[in-house]
Amino acid sequence: MLRAWSQELGSETLYKMGSGGIVVGPLGFEPRIANAPGLENGQINWEAFREWLLRNHKATVTRDYVNYSKRFSHCLLSRDLTEVRNLRVTIRANVVKAISSLAKFLGIYDEYKTLLKSYGIDWKGRSSDDLMIDRLTKSQNPDEMFSWISQVKRDLPELSEFMDFISVTGLRLAEAVSSYNLIVDLSKKGKLGEYYNADSLILEHFRFKETFIRNSKKAFVSFVPVELVKRISESNELPSKFCLQLRVKRHGSSKIRFADIREVHASFMTKYLKPQEIDFLHGRIGTSVFMANYYNPNWVGDLRARAIQGVGEIMGKIQT
After folding, report:
1. Residue 47 located in a structural domain
2. Range of the domain at 261
């Protein structure tokens, strides 16, 4: 069992581990590990790590980082990243980032970077070339995808509005859940106008920067019919994206296909929109480019007309 004691010395606190490792750090700041090689997995204060992460990360990211760190911290502490190196590329990128945060928290980040280099582990996930090849070779049958959406709506009627919403916006799952819940919350407070412009049929995600404008993933605006926004506003807030995925899986779906909805949305909307316009709606542009175009009423008006036409066709295909 871990035996620990602490003694305050001015602004610092010493924590003595049963194994002999001593964590030294100012209260409320990142600790420094005086004897990390002797530290064992059971001696990491996971609650302190979680609180440290929450200072700069969202709750969902924090949860993922803590879970990955708990699962792979033994690799860091034993200085053996073989297990991490052998992970699937898409998972490995997330694990590497999580352990990176843990290494910073423990004060051994420089050593961790050396380990990554020694094991030939890259920070990045799949290359853009790999992702492009996947898109070109992946069979995307919109009708098959629309059938899956309709089936989820039949199996889980309480998710009907959400499935319509994510289908017509092409938002990422986490973004769609946040947007959906924001509509519900603001509607109850009588403040929906701060988010939804009913005259232009636009959800203005950019007004909630902390939620939708992230470093690598952005959502600026979405065109959504008034009728759908009204139905959502009369619904209840949704749980996390993970709970949604689990709920769908428990009801017999052999595959969770929320990520495919975004791909099919982009492919289907080429009937009505130019590639750069789809990039605009999917947040694949810089903030300055967005601002320069969004406040051009003639351009936005034309875009809205064609986008809503596409939204109407999608809605018709996923009716149950």
Report:
1. yes
2. 139-317
CA angle (104, 110, 112) in 5-degree steps:
75
CA-CA distance, 272 to 274, in Å (whole number)?
7
- Is residue 134 one of the residues assigned to a domain? no
Instruction: For residue 298, tell me if it sits in a domain.
Output: yes
pTM here is 0.67
Q: Do 164 and 301 fall into the same domain? A: yes
**Which region among 42-51, 93-102, 221-230 has the lowest average model confidence (pLDDT)?**
42-51
Instruction: State pLDDT tens for residues 284-305.
Output: 988 888 888 888 878 888 999 9
Q: What is the mean pLDDT of the chain?
A: 83
**SS3 of residue 31 by DSSP:** coil
Instruction: Count Cα atoms within 13 angstroms, Cβ side, for 15.
Output: 20
Which has the minimum average pLDDT: 65-74, 282-291, 304-313?
282-291
